[in-house]
Design brief:
The complex is a heterodimer of chains A (240) and B (66).
Chain A (H helix, E strand, L loop, with lengths): L1 H38 L13 H28 L2 H33 L7 H20 L5 H15 L2 H11 L19 H43 L3
Helix pairs in contact in A: 1-7, 2-3, 2-4, 2-5, 2-7, 3-4, 3-7, 4-5, 4-6
Chain B lengths: L1 H5 L4 H40 L4 H7 L5
Classes of the chains: A mainly alpha (240), B mainly alpha (66).
């Protein structure tokens, strides 16, 4: 019985939580953007171009975070057949793809003035591009079956196999020679970045995360409602 | 003010980064909300057509397909 009660309870809770998440997201973005442009100093080497970091790094973190969330939800869906897990994984994919695309695009815009090139085929950039293709493949595979359950299962397996890319992205800057700089926030011995730059970065990162939760709630509500619509339509066809 | 927009000569890289991020995040949010609204209105219409006698069934059978 809990299988049927869960999505309904989720809808009730989501409707209450969503306006709060929306408000928190807007407030964090306002604070984060103000600090990124007005209190954070220019870099001693990169000048004002360093301000691209405050969107580039959170987008890249969230591209990876969303993939991890999608892979975990897919595992839960495959193992325990929890009805919300499939829906959560499916709802996460387009958000993660958008973040990954943004990290590639803003990285390109940062690379041109700093490295002298829009793109290099090095380990960090290439593994991030593969992450983007994994999201696209996941979404395409989901819609490729007439039987929705089979599509969900196939794409869940793809999400799990693709998770091997996450540690490759994280350690690519240590394992291979690359133009991309190594980690300066999440690393052994603590962040090596000045607090005046670290704080706006962290606030923007949290803003990106609450934005994800916001969109996730909306998309899960949509999926659950779409399932109800399908059930109603089936009942009508079979004479209710 | 002009100083601020020129971003020390990097304006052509900084502003497109922020602009693209804002546009993509807003479009994704708006598309998601619109899709929810239209699915909800379809559901409410179907439920009204089905009539009150089916009400109990709907409430216990949602989402079991996932």
């Amino acid at each position: 019985m809990h299988r049927f009660a869960n999505p309904t309870r989720f809808l009730r809770i989501a409707a209450v939580v969503q306006p709060w998440i929306a408000g928190i997201t807007v407030a964090l973005f306002a604070a984060g953007l103000y600090m990124a442009f007005f209190t954070a100093p220019p870099d001693y080497q990169q000048g004002e171009s360093v301000r691209i970091m405050y969107v580039h790094v959170p987008a890249a973190w969230m591209g990876m975070f969303c993939y991890a969330a999608m892979a975990i939800a897919s595992a839960v869906a495959l193992i325990w057949k929890h009805p919300l897990a499939d829906v959560a994984a499916k709802a996460t994919a387009p958000v993660g793809a958008a973040f990954t695309f943004l990290s590639l695009a803003t990285g390109s815009l940062w690379g041109k003035p700093m490295w002298g090139t829009w793109w290099v085929w090095d380990a960090r950039l290439t593994s991030m591009l593969i992450l983007f293709f994994l999201y696209i493949g996941y979404m395409a595979l989901q819609g490729a079956f007439d039987d929705r359950a089979r599509g969900a299962k196939a794409s869940a397996i793809l999400a799990l196999v693709g998770a091997v890319n996450l540690p490759i992205i994280k350690f690519s800057v240590d394992w291979w020679n690359t133009l991309h700089q190594p980690a300066s926030v999440i690393k052994m011995g603590g962040p090596s970045i000045h607090p005046d730059m670290l704080w706006p970065l962290l606030i923007m990162a949290v803003a990106f995360k609450t934005y994800y939760v916001w969109v996730l709630l909306v998309r899960i509500r949509q999926e659950i409602t779409a399932n109800k619509v399908r059930i109603l339509r089936l009942k009508q066809v079979h004479g209710g | 003010m002009a100083d601020f927009f020129s971003m020390g000569g990097y304006g052509a890289y900084v502003w497109p980064s922020y602009g693209m991020t804002a546009i993509i995040m807003l479009v994704l949010l708006i598309m998601s909300v619109r899709s929810l609204k239209s699915t909800e209105s379809t559901f409410n219409r179907l439920k009204a057509e089905a009539g009150p006698k089916n009400k109990k069934n709907e409430e216990t059978s949602n989402g079991d397909e996932a």
